[in-house]
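TEACHING EXERCISE
Course module: macromolecular assemblies
Task: Read the component lines below, then compare them to the predicted structure of the full complex.
Student: A.B.
Group: 4
Components provided:
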Amino acid sequence: VTRYSAKTEELPSIKDIQTACVRIRPFLRRTIILRSRTLDSITNSRLHFKCENFQTSGSFKARGAHNAVFALSNEQAQQGVVTHSSGNHGAALALAARRRGITAQIVVPQNSVTSKVDNIRRYGGKVIFCSPTLANRKATAERAVRETGGHFIHSYDNSAVIAGQGTAAMELLLDEQQLDVIIVPVGGGGLLAGTALAIKSLKPTVAVFGAEPQMVDDAFRSLRDGTLVPQTNLQTVADALRTSLSIRTLTLMKKYVDEILLVSEESILGAMCLIWSILKIVVEPSSAVPLAAVLCNAASSRFAGKHIGIILTGGNVDVHHLAKHTDH
Amino acid sequence: VTRYSAKTEELPSIKDIQTACVRIRPFLRRTIILRSRTLDSITNSRLHFKCENFQTSGSFKARGAHNAVFALSNEQAQQGVVTHSSGNHGAALALAARRRGITAQIVVPQNSVTSKVDNIRRYGGKVIFCSPTLANRKATAERAVRETGGHFIHSYDNSAVIAGQGTAAMELLLDEQQLDVIIVPVGGGGLLAGTALAIKSLKPTVAVFGAEPQMVDDAFRSLRDGTLVPQTNLQTVADALRTSLSIRTLTLMKKYVDEILLVSEESILGAMCLIWSILKIVVEPSSAVPLAAVLCNAASSRFAGKHIGIILTGGNVDVHHLAKHTDH
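Instructor-supplied answer key:
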């Protein structure tokens, strides 16, 4: 028996999401929901943006990480936690571990963005670099688990993480009870699985869509074929969505998700520009994928007049890189 | 007698700011105030950010424009309004005029940023292009006034505009009564004059500072010498601060402002990056000038532990230009 392998039969229930809500409340923000007359008019719908870019650590990943870390028994927690992540999950796990007073070892590919590595360190995480292949990330994390006895917490293939991510949709539904549709980005499927479980358990008439870049359409194909299609292409601007599903997230998605909507790279950048320029908030490209999907359907009647909830997943962009270009 | 020349003796009073608060309330947002433990820790102070980037039309300029437009008598208003502006005042005036049901003619230098011109048009303003010198802007606006009988509303050399801008500081003081210091950017001085008038009338123990790019230090020199020093250099990334003071704004500043703090171009971009990356909101470079001033003093005891109010003036950045650079 290894601590590392995921038991696929362990699926979270709506009860787990409700427990997560209570467990993470002391640590996280109840993020605001923004509306915009201009964006409603452009999309011919009624948009409700749940701003997880304002969440502690800069993304919704704080929800799953805090739920997983604080769900551990004292015995499980005492040797700390381990994960591999080049992005938001690493920072979120480091922060959750610090708050529990335990160590976090984060395996990070050598080619990761400096600002994301800085974020992990800022929250007290111990960074372990590895060469940038998935096999290497896994092997390095397994070694850290073996050597330290730390508890491995996968960024999405983990029931407590999925339940934690589901709390964002639960808050959104409680705050905006007239929702007809909810759309979230899909990468590994943790957020989408948690969202779908929350929504279909609480209000099954609400349609649940995943939004995915066409360039990395493995979730679309996995759901269509009913079997896990791994992601091989990494060429999307939505860097947080370059991962494959797991059996666990796919199983939940097959049960609860209505459809995956695909969008072009251009439409993602266009949607991100609209969010930055009209809502005046900083979101990362992955966050713009659901709005891109709404925009693609603006001319049809599909979403006409509908109340659409969108989870803006995070705001961790390398702005220092961007700032060089502000002086026109 | 021309409608165009400013009567320097007409100075707003605190009563005018209070009237403005009531007058503009139906049209504008009571913007939120953001705080950040990280920024407090970096600056060794307690920062309160008043988010005018979320204001209608994307900047605080909506306050002065709405106050000036709705202060007009029906007779004054019937031929519409005129101004020259390459930026936020033009868009704000166009919006205020549309809401009053009158026309707005906005004289705009040919070399203005497309997104700002688009903003003016989006709000129904009539754009009149001119060659990009101040003399030409004035002459073109004077001609529009002569030809149409429109009422000229200067972007800062106007008592109703100054009183309107003062409402932001009044709201900030009401929401954060423990303020020790308030810092706002200074360009033409409309916001600084209105802020200083509001603060020193309501709570004179609060220190009022203007923050100005060293590259365009005309406000610093004007206040030091007690006489209007025109701005000739236009080379600052804080594009909204490239204007000279007027006698009217200088007179109020001499009476109420404690000091002008100067900051480098690098510190402005650094401060803007911090706001984008930590607060996760989009602000234009000019908005970052006060935080740059606090950061320059972080090592000294000047602001240590102080409650500092900062008005984040606007969020109108050309994000389409920026978005090209997000893919790293």
